[in-house]
Amino acid sequence: MDSNPKHTAVRLRVSLFALMRQLRQSVPPDGLGSARLSVLGALYRRGPMTPTELAAHERVKLQTLTRLLAELEAEAWVVREPDPDDGRRSVLSLTRLGIRQLTADVQRREASLAVAIETALTPTQQAQLLKACEALDAVTAALGGEAVEPSGAAARAR
Fold first, then answer.
1. Phi, psi of 80 (to 5 degrees)
2. What angle do CA 126, 129, 130 make, to 5 degrees?
3. Is residue 78's pLDDT more than 80?
4. In sequence order, what are the beta bridge partners of 91?
5. Are 58 and 42 within 8 A, CB to CB?
6. 79: pLDDT confidence band, cut at 50, 70 and 90?
7. Bridge partners of 49?
8. CA-CA distance, 133 to 126, in Å (whole number)?
9. What is the pTM for the complete model shown?
10. CA separation (Å) from 138 to 55, 133, 135?
11. How does the average pLDDT of the chain come out, rounded?
12. Strand 78-83 versus strand 86-94 pairing type
């Protein structure tokens, strides 16, 4: 097996993009789209934040989020309240309904992925995949990304 870091980087990128594309395509019609999932997940993991902070976290312009936030507010998944430190700003947070919607969607996605893992991989390969997740977490941290907790949002919400 080739242990060249450049070759490994290419294989990792190709494999991850293919997996993510497949996961996006397998979302049921009533499932959350990737933008909604990302915004709701950020508010769940990081807690309440201003729209500007959320846009910075998502690495998009505030104007890009405006319509999505309005939709999430209209559906009562997100609530906007005055910032206690600065009345000119507002703070976004998830509602109980938003948490329930996010949790249900994540659980559906995880269940689908679990079936695919169980179907496609031997128990030995499943153990290797779990070990590879630790390596992916280390690479994410080395790139300056957020630390990944094994008991993330979906696990806490159960």
1. -115, 125
2. 90
3. yes
4. 81
5. yes
6. very high
7. 92
8. 11
9. 0.77
10. 26, 9, 5
11. 88
12. antiparallel
